[in-house]
Amino acid sequence: xxxxxxxxxxxxxxxxxxxxxxxxxxxxxDSKEKDYFKDEKGSEMETPEWRAEFNLxxxxxxxxxxxxxxxxxxxVSAAHFSDAEDQKCARVVMPMMWGMIPFWHKGxxxxxxxxxxxxxxxxxxxxxxxxGPFKRGQRCVxxxxxxxxxxxxxxxxxxxxxxxxxxxxxxxxxxxxxDKSTWSPQDVKLLRMAGLFDVWEDESGDKMYSYSIIxxxxxxxxxxxxxRMPAILETEQQMNDWLDFKRVSDTEALATLRPATELQWxxxxxxxxxxxxxxxxxxxxxxLAAKPVKPPMNKTMMSWLNVRKKREEQIKAEQSDASDGxxxxxxxxxxxxxxxxxxxxxxxxxxPRFRDFKNEALERSGGSSxxxxxxxxx
Length: 378
Known about the structure:
alpha+beta
């Protein structure tokens, strides 16, 4: 699986990093309509053309954290745009949107509702979406400095707790892929992944180029990290066979897709979990990355929190004052009820009872109390 990549080169630097050995064609005299390709000895490396498409106004922007629906550079055969003889082996770099737009979709291209950033190789020929582009030879190569992968193999973890890694191809000894000061575009080795592209048109006839990355079951080199891996093209021969749709048949092209034999990786911080994080700390080894700084809080939110905090403190103060007043009253009552000689002091008057009132009335009238009447009757 491939869900996030890193490419920090500008267009001029991209085509510099994508130089390839120049090829020429010659026709075999004994066979008809068949072209043979050979390296042109003594020739320099060929620089691909940067073909800027409108893509509904979308542009490529270099980023440490590229996500699906972003625009990224993709290599295709120049034969898609020209029938000239010298273009059969030529390559073109053009920006496309990551995530193929279904050709049948109508309306907003961002709302087709499908997840198309990856194309499963085992279902490619059965797919309504991918079968057509593949049969038309719309094969491409997606380039990046590396792709991010989250470890899903092993004990189950929540997505936010999974370790993230940057996976890249081996570099020269003095090149550190995460440190651009140690390499230049002409000597860095970009990671190249096989993909398919298609062209979608809106109601106005404006075109949007989009692509999907081909994936298959992980080999031993990556199975410890994830059960899927992209189809990585390690050699120039694989690149030529995958891109040259006029010379290489569909079956032969599929045969070039095999698991990578050499990959490197290092663990990165969880900054890459959020695609809005684009800082240079994203691709650094976790032990070298700076601790993330909390973004400044919105002024409106800050003032609201300050008002709320003051109000809470005020309520606590009022509750504390009320509690202290109640305690003082209780202490005062206790002190008034217990004096030094044990007699009550300022004790509240007893509420008169009806029996006391009746006895007092009988005494005044010369009669006897209830107790005396009851004893006389006995």
